[in-house]
Amino acid sequence: MPTVALIGPELYPIPPIRGGAVELFIEQTAARLTHWRPVVIGPSDPELPDHEVLGGVEYFRIHLSGWRGRLYKRHRRLFPFYDRRVAAILRRIRPDLVHIHNRPLLASFLGKCRGLEKTPLVLHMHNLQNSLGRREKSPPGASVPMAGFIGCSRFVVEQEKSRLGRDAAARFVVYNGVDTEAFLTPWDHPASREKIRHRYQLTDEPTVLFVGKLRESKGVQILLAAMEQVWSRFPPAVLVLVGGTEFGLGRTDRETPFLREMRRRIEKARGRVVLTGFIPPARIPEAYLLGDIFVGPSQIEEGLGMVFLEASAAGLPIIASRRGGIPEIVRDDFNGLLLQQHDDPRELAAKINLLLEDQDLRRRLGRQGRAFFQDNFSWEIIAQRQEEVYDEIVGR
Questions:
Q1: Which among 37, 47, 147, 271 could bridge 120 via Cys, Cβ 3.0 to 4.6 Å?
Q2: How do beta strands 3-7 and 97-101 pair?
Q3: Which 8-state DSSP code applies to residue 302?
Q4: Residue 136 per-residue DSSP state
């Protein structure tokens, strides 16, 4: 059986006990590979061993804390500690394929390492290079030769085909997946819904749900402005904001200037807002039972957005921005409603009001989305697609 090394970014551990969509993707697909042996490489964490075999997946975790971590994050080109340790592990395990997630500089480094020249490399981008941190981007015009380039959506592949994917021998789309069995629908599990809503003092109020990082780029401020208009029509409506400001150890609920400003606005809001704070990934499925509709007014061109898959898997109708790869999974009048203007609170309020008023529309969008994602976006289907890509690359 051939071996594939799946390499995560240096920020968060795998499994994603500190959060992270990329880390979740690696964990879920690695566990479901059937004819490739997965080895996962990522950063260490105090709650995880440096080396273990878990569910048939071998994990190696690299220490990058203290002064090493600070030097790496600020001057990675001069002090490539993480890159070197990854290379050392790869030389030891000698995989047949290396699958690098969201780190073009790491792909470039490994492609030049002695002893790895003949190992095919795949770079998998879960968002655009422009969304990466300043120290994580490949320099303009830099060549990153690779056996394959994977994007999480057609949008990412199209946008990066002349940049990061320019020197790839082949380009592929592998969508994100969702564990449809973990996400419960309100119509099949009313008791579970009542229990989680009771935890946040919710009864039968119409509830608008947001899940994600509480950042300006996610459009939280647009959503709150829209709710001011919704409350004039539906005073009992509740806005539930699920998420922290960051991922990672000790950072999930960091008080950012944006969050402080949001708290001030929430205190003056005419309706009720619930801030749950960061919820660990293992408990995220139950969080979707809080809502009647899901709203994700992203202000940036996201690669795809894991939360939209999760909301559909949970049977929630969606309102989303018509940006980036989002329209590839949120289909207007099928499993949600798409905004014409991503930054217009009035349009967003009108669509929220429409869904709150029309129960039949909510049910139709939610049920259609649930069925579609069960049939097309389960982790088993995504892992199978990933193995097809591996087979094609090695076959070349």
A1: 147
A2: parallel
A3: -
A4: G
Q: How far apart are CA 218 and CA 256, in angstroms?
A: 14
Determine the residue type at 338. L
Strand partners, 242: 211, 277
Query: Does residue 339 have a pLDDT over 90?
Result: yes
Q: pTM for this one?
A: 0.91
Residue 302's nearest CA partner among 212, 218, 178, 215 is: 218
Distance between CA atoms of residues 279 and 283, nearest Å:
6
Domains and CATH numbers, the chain: 3-177+378-395 (3.40.50.2000), 190-376 (3.40.50.2000)
Q: Is the bond leading into 16 cis (omega within 30 degrees of zero)?
A: no
Q: What's the CA gap between 202 and 380, in Å, rounded?
A: 35
Smallest CA-to-CA distance from 288 within 309, 269, 304 is with: 309
DSSP H or E stretch at residue 61: strand 57-62
Distance of CA 115 to the CA centre of its chain: 33
- Other C-beta atoms lying within 10 Å of the C-beta of residue 339: 24
pLDDT tens-digit readout, 244-292:
887 655 566 678 899 999 999 999 999 999 999 989 888 999 999 999 9
Per-residue burial over 312-336, b if 16 or more Cβ lie within 10 Å, else e, is: bbbbbbbbbbebbbbbbbbbeeebb
Which ranges of 14-114 would DSSP assign to H, the alpha helix? 21-30, 66-75, 81-93, 104-111
**pLDDT score for 260:** 92
- CA 158 to CA 139: how far, in whole Å? 19
The pLDDT tens digits for 48-101 are 999 999 999 999 999 988 888 788 888 887 788 999 999 999 999 999 999 999
DSSP for 167-185, please give it: TBS-EEE----B-TTTSPP
- Cα–Cα distance, 9 to 220 (Å, whole number): 26
Answer whether 249's CB lies under 8 Å from 46's CB: yes
Using CA of residue 384, residue 388, residue 390, residue 394, what is the dihedral sign? positive
Could you tell me the CA-to-CA distances from 341 to 128, 191, 299, 350, 386 in Å, in that order? 21, 37, 10, 12, 34
* Per-residue CA distances from 365 to 128, 191, 335 (Å): 29, 22, 4
In this prediction, residues 107-136 reach a mean pLDDT of 89
Contact criterion met (CB below 8 Å) for 319 and 351: yes
